[in-house]
């Protein structure tokens, strides 16, 4: 799989819930606002997990595909919110 230079790749194939979301969360914390993270996973529970995770954190799940059992997610990191 070729990843565009504007994305960071996180290969989490073989990991079971909740590890894909936990590792993606850690990676996203270190990324700039608006940066894109492509996650490769094989755990079917990741589909619902990443949907919920993005809904709760404000990150955007901008793409999801499945090919031969491999799941690919692209998440765009949310913009930073200014302190109140």
From TrEMBL:
InterPro entries: TusA-like, TusA-like_sf. Coiled coil: none annotated. Pfam families: TusA. It comes from the Bacteria. Residues 10-34 form the UPF0033 domain. Belongs to the sulfur carrier protein TusA family. This is Response regulator SirA.
